Every structure is written in C-alpha cells, then in structure tokens.
Amino acid sequence: MKKKLLCYLPLAAVGIYCTLRYSEECNRGITQGISFCIGVLIPSLFLFMVIAAFAVRSNLAFFLTKPMAGFSRAVFGLPAVSLSAILLALIGGYPIGGRCVGALYEQKLITQKQAQKTAYIAVAAGPGFVVNYIGLALLNSKKTGMILLAAQILAVILTGVIVGKVVPCEETQEPCQAVSSGGNLIIDAVSDASKGAFSMCAMVIVFCAASEVAATVFSPFPEAVKLTSGFLEVTTGVNRTTGYYPLWMTAFYTGFGGLSVHFQIFASLKNVAIKKYLFFLFRIIQGIFAGIFTYILVSIFPETQAVFSTAEVQSAGISGTVWGSAALILSSMVFLGSISQGGKYVLNRGYYNNRL
After folding, report:
1. Neighbours of 324 (CB within 10 A)
2. 188 with 52: CB under 8 angstroms?
3. Tell me: the pLDDT tens digits for 272-309?
C-alpha cells in the first residue's frame, strides 16, 4: 500500500503543478472537452448506450447472437453472446463495447475470463466518427471514410482472432438465460447509460485539458505535438494530423483509440479485472492492422483523394441512428467484397493535401 502511495505522490504533484502553472490551457481544454461532449459525444452515443444496456438486460442480445455460436467459438473462442458487445462496438463506437461487456458480466451471461477476453476485442470507432467526422468533415470525402471504416472492421476481426488464440479462457459454453429486469428495463437501461455518459465525458474533459497542457509544454516541437496527441485523445489527434500526414497514420490513431478512450472503457469495466498492459498491447496491434489495411485499400483505389475541410468539430454530422450506422457497416462490408482479387495494385504513396 505504501509503495502505491509513493508512486501516486509524483503523479499528484505533477497534476497540481500543471493545474496551477497552466491554468489558462487547462480552462481551454476543459471548455473544448465540454463542448465536444455536448455537441458530438452525447448526441451520437447516448442512445446507443441505452440500447446496449436494454439489449443485455432484456436478454435480447442472448437470443439474437445464439445462432452465431459456431462462428464465435471458431473465430474468437468466445460464446455467441460476446458477439453482441463486438457488434455494438462496431456500430456505436468506442465506449459502447466496454459498457456492453460490463452489462453482460453483471447479468452473468459471461464469466470473468470471457468478459476479459471480450473486452480486449470490443473496441472500435463508430461509423459516425470514421465516415462522417474524419471522412466528410475533415477530408471532405465519404469514400475515404468508407476505406477507413472497412480497414477498421478488418483490424478488429484480425485482432480478435489473435486474442482468441493467445488469451487463455475456459471452454466456451453457451450461458443459461439470465433473468431480465422486468418492468424496470427502460428505467434501468437509461440509468446505466446516464452513469456511463457522465463517466465518459469526465474522461474526455480531463484528457482534453491534458492535451492542451502537453501542446503548450512541447510547443517548441510542433511536429511532436501533432504526432503524440492521438495517443492521449483520439479526436484531438486525428484533428491535428489528418491532412498533414498519410491516411494510414489517421487509421492507426483511430484503431488505437487514445488513452482517453481506454480509461472510458476501464471505467465501464469496474467489475472485470482486465490486464491493462494486454489491453494496451492489443490496441497497438489493432492500430497497426488498421494502418496496414488502409494503406492496402488506398493502393487498390489510387483515385481516392481527400481534401481537408475547414468544418468545425461540432459541425461534424455524426450518425445518430442505429440503422444509419448499421447501414454504413453493411456498406463497408459490400465495399470490401467488391474488391477485385486479381487486380493490379497501384501504390499511392502521396500525402494528402495540407490544411490551408
């Protein structure tokens, strides 16, 4: 216990110093974080969080994924119900997967080890963030956004295959049906989503403030600030790097997710004892895969050109409906299936246009 306190003391001292020394930067970061939460995050994710909680509490996730038991066991080494968390993460965005895993464990639909394993896989940016924000708002190209989305889906699947092979887990057995919450389903789902949204926004605000402080401290090294910002907060990172660097770098940051997203997921998994170093390692692997697949897809479609748009972050139209995001996921699947296997790959090594 004393060793932990000794480790926490320097961290607390640095936090106090930064808060006092860089109060203006902290205020600016907090304001940006609140604006992002109110203008983008809550409108785009809150309903997904309610739906995820409702699907688990009502046993809907259990019945919908039951026919896919064979696929889930073969690919991920997990029961079929774990697929609900992975699919909801792909449709709804980063924190949704963690919230769903936590709910599945609380409902005793998955064991502790299965929850850990699922949590390593169910991390992805939603179509609204990838297609509408990065593709349309930042690069003014929906096709580029679809390439990023397709690459991310492939990265999640391939990362999941690796997790399925290397992370030990008890023999996969389909769980018994859990008891639903009866007449309190909607109330409980909204309550769960509200707690999750508050925790999520708090993490975003803290990391936005940290990002502003870091940008000021390392202002003599602007390139380093751009390149490292995505490791702290993914939205800030892609906003600073997209348009300056190749698309595969944006894909890496999106696949990695940023420490802000990681801590949001950890907050959703309070009862699931995941190994954080493994979680971080799998996010690095997922980011690398996302970058590789993006590079390959851009090479296959060399005519893809993205032009930076000066649209504000809050003006980015995030997909606000389940059906809209599901349609984008389906479109990206069709996009992947339409790629010719025998075509000649033309490498496009050019950078995207710099911002004005």
Report:
1. 16
2. no
3. 888 999 999 999 999 999 999 999 999 988 655 444 44
CA separation, residue 180 to residues 59, 103, 106, 185, 189 (Å): 6, 12, 12, 8, 12
Amino acid (one-letter) located at 176: C
Distance, in Å, from the CA atom of 8 to the CA atom of 313, rounded to the nearest integer, reads: 35
Q: 3-state class of 44 per DSSP?
A: helix
pTM equals 0.77
Residue 174 tokens, joined: 């389909």
Q: How many residues make up the chain in this entry? A: 356
At residue 290's C-alpha, the angle toward residues 131 and 120, to 5°, is: 100
State the CB neighbour count (10 A cutoff) for residue 263.
18
Question: What are the DSSP calls for 272-339, one per residue?
Answer: S---HHHHHHHHHHHHHHHHHHHHHHHHH-TT---------GGG-----SHHHHHHHHHHHHHHHHTS
- State what percent of residues in the chain have pLDDT above 70: 79
- Residue 309: closest CA among 146, 149, 144, 134: 134
pLDDT tens digits for range 100-129: 898 888 888 888 999 999 999 999 988 878
Task: List beta partners, residue 242.
Answer: 245
**Do residues 63 and 230 lie in contact, with contact meaning Cβ atoms separated by under 8 Å?**
no
